[in-house]
UniProtKB/TrEMBL annotation:
Its main location: membrane. Keywords: Cell membrane, Membrane, Protein transport, Translocation, Transmembrane, Transmembrane helix, Transport. Belongs to the SecD/SecF family. SecD subfamily. Part of the Sec protein translocase complex. Interacts with the SecYEG preprotein conducting channel. SecDF uses the proton motive force (PMF) to complete protein translocation after the ATP-dependent function of SecA. This is Multifunctional fusion protein. Residues 153-275 form the SecDF P1 head subdomain domain. The lineage of its organism: Bacteria, Bacillati, Actinomycetota, Actinomycetes, Kitasatosporales. Residues 129-158, 756-795 are annotated as: Disordered. It is a multi-pass membrane protein.
Amino acid sequence: MKRSRPPSRTRSRSRSRSLNVRALLALAVLAASVAIALTMPVRLGLDLRGGTQIVLETKSTETTKADREATDRTVEVLRGRIDALGVAEPTIVRSGENRVVVELPGVQDPKKAADVLGRTAQLTVHSVLGPAENPADAGEGDTEAAKDGERVLPDESGQSLRLKAATLTGQDVKGADARFDQQNGAGWTVTVDFKDSGSDRWAQVTGEAACNPAGDPKRRVAIVLDDKIISSPQVDPSVSCGAGITGGSTQITGSFDDAEARELALLIKGGALPVPVETIEQRTIGATLGDEAINAGAWAAVIGTALTALFIIVVYRLMGALATVALLCYGLISYAALAAVGATLTLPGLAGFVLAIGMAVDANVLVFERAREEQAARTRPSTRSALTAGFRSAFSAIADSNITTLIAAALLFFLASGPVKGFGVTLGIGVLASMVSALVITRVLAEFAASRPAVFRRPGITGISTTGPVRDALLRRNPFLMARPRRWLAASLIVMVVAGSGILVRGLNFGIEFTGGRLIEYSTADQVDPDRARDALADAGFPRAVVQSSGDGDLTVRTEELTDDEAATVTKAVAELGGETEKVRDELIGPSLGEELRRDALIALGLALAAQLAYLAVRFRLLFGTAAVSALAHDVVILVGVFAWLGKPIDGVFLAALLTVIGYSVNDSVVLFDRVRELLGKERKAPFARLTNDAILQTLPRTVNTGMGAVLILASLAILADDSLTDFALALLIGVGVGTYSSVFTASPLAIELHDRGTGSRTTRRKGGKGQGARRTGKTDKQVPASRTERQEAL
């Protein structure tokens, strides 16, 4: 007779197998990250390293004048091409009436980039009228246009063709993709999709060509790009006369390699420039920030990270030390991912990256606090089993908060452009890396350490055997914070109105990226160090001037709009450093964050908030989603309003900080509402206000510890970093504080009010006092939970 294995031994083996699988997964991820980090360096942005500057000049045509409006439209088309080229964090501004200054960080082939940007990309489709009678006329393009728009151009083989006036243009194109046609052996091709109107005209032009016999040049259709026939295929014999090719798409074939096919698809999809452009200058430019600013930011990041690690170790002891190791692994994984996707790292991005390390503490804190609850409830026989229960209980909160952030990151990436799109990439990478760090690496290290005999005999060193000072204080007082939720809502409304009134009273101080300004380039007798020039201009009253080295010893100064006297002051400050000074260029420049980019960013952000609301409504309840998004709007108004009152600039750095605050605020609310949902599943008949209050008290230790991790890093950046990061750190400090407040005192009271209105009655609430599940014993005068549910509420 076979003996069955004891259940405890089976569970032990199962846990060991799970631990081994997680350990192998963690080692594989870390090994891949190390390999990528050593072989693929991260691109540095214009502020850290500089890059290539290309100056383009728009040219008037017979039909379109190269004025400011046409140049602004050209800027938006160029921005789309640069995004498709994979260049992140570029700077594109209109300079004067008809010039465009493009600055590209880390471009490997500047000449190719200039060629792609400079092509007009005017796409047209023509019926072929037959061979040209006079081949010498071929290539003259526009100059040989007849009365009815006919023209003569050479095809791919050099044969001259007489073309009818264009039937379709680039305006009829919906999209284009480069594909490898392995089935028909055509190699790399470009598939062009037409809009509805273009689809009808494509059927018309191919239907007319199909009326001619096979082999006749008139059976061909010519596709022309910038006065050059790039493809002139014969219409297939299967196409009947007059019917044409329906479906609204065509395939351009030719002797393309993969790079040529992708470049052609990029140009067609990006659209034609409204006017031709000519490259008039190409040079290397220096970093917009000096070495001192970069070093100060790096030291602030190191000190802030060290303080956060020390705080976590003090609070959670051994588990905190292991979490710190996991967070270092998180940093490695994030860096490798940024390198793998070709992201460009700027100084605000670097600061945000370091801040993400502080915020990644959140998942570890969630797990450790849940493990403390299990240990204090005396339902777990060992530290390891308490940790396992903590990971299981915290998983839903970690998953929901990260999924809502990933939704926002995905929409920002796919719908926005420029720096907002880059922020979506960084945000998404940070979220995924933090989940791997907390749920895989921390768990492997924590469970391995907890299973050691030395740790088993001394549970106090783990840091989760006690409830902690914050939870102990809450247990002693057990305050009923949600007794009067309308008072909290009134207080939140007053703060929001006072802060928001700054937007109406003082207005927003938009930076150069939004408003444009003035660009002055100097040639000096003695080469001027950009760091010294920045200091001199700051002393002269221009602290926000952007100073770069340019070309062979020139100096470029970019500021907000200046009067002639202010411009003379700038010139005098530069001349004092460089001796004899000559103005090489003095032009007004347009905004780098143009109207279309701002509109795309707002649309992407609005859709991201709507998607988050929909997800929270499905995962929780609609009232929870509404409360979370309302608290988010409250945080945004307060942050923008405070900056308005302080007169701080609303620029690209502030935009990055604002997007970070949005993610932080939603994350806090999701963690709280996840606990409310859990308590609702256990005590359906309990008053909703009481359950919400219990959820606040149970998650408050996590909120405090996570907030401290972020504040330590931000305070280091605000105090130690250069002025360029001070406003960034200030915005995030305000955002973290307001986000923490709003999740407790705005989102929660609003959820209670929405719940009460939905049930049609006001819930009876009691002031203060002890929780409803607690009872006292005469001997110890200590609260003893009467059941496991009540134990959870008391903790």
